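Severity: low
Component: inverse-folding endpoint
Summary: output formatting inconsistent between runs
Steps to reproduce: submit the following structure tokens with default settings.
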């Protein structure tokens, strides 16, 4: 099935697109609750850098056995997306070491945002692509 999600509605809690990403017709993202869970503990965040040349996709798979997994996935994916999109305004890394450093910093910032929250610290697996 396919659903149209309007930015700013309750349906976008698990899939978050920046205004720039939502305005484009060539990027999309979706999430499905699956058959075993009552809540969707995954999150995805899609963004575009300021130049419009780099698409950033971050996906977080919440660990259902941890309290706070939904919020952990949401915070981690949004933080990583926002950091990567802002960093891409300066251009892509020019070598492998710079690429590794960029993603290390991205995941560190996501981790810091999760552990600095006021609620239970859940867990998630985080993947990012530019």
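Observed output (run 2 of 3):
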């Amino acid at each position: 099935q396919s659903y149209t999600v309007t930015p700013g509605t309750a349906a976008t809690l698990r899939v978050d697109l920046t205004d720039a990403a939502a305005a484009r017709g060539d990027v999309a993202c979706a999430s499905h609750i699956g058959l075993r869970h009552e809540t969707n503990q995954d999150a995805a965040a899609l963004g575009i850098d300021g130049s419009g040349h780099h698409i950033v996709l971050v996906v977080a798979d919440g660990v259902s056995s941890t309290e706070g997994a939904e919020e952990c996935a949401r915070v981690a994916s949004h933080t990583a997306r926002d950091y990567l999109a802002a960093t891409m305004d300066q251009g892509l890394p020019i070598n492998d070491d710079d690429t590794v450093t960029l993603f290390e910093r991205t995941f560190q910032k996501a981790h810091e945002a999760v552990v600095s929250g006021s609620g239970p610290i859940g867990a998630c697996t985080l993947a990012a692509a530019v």
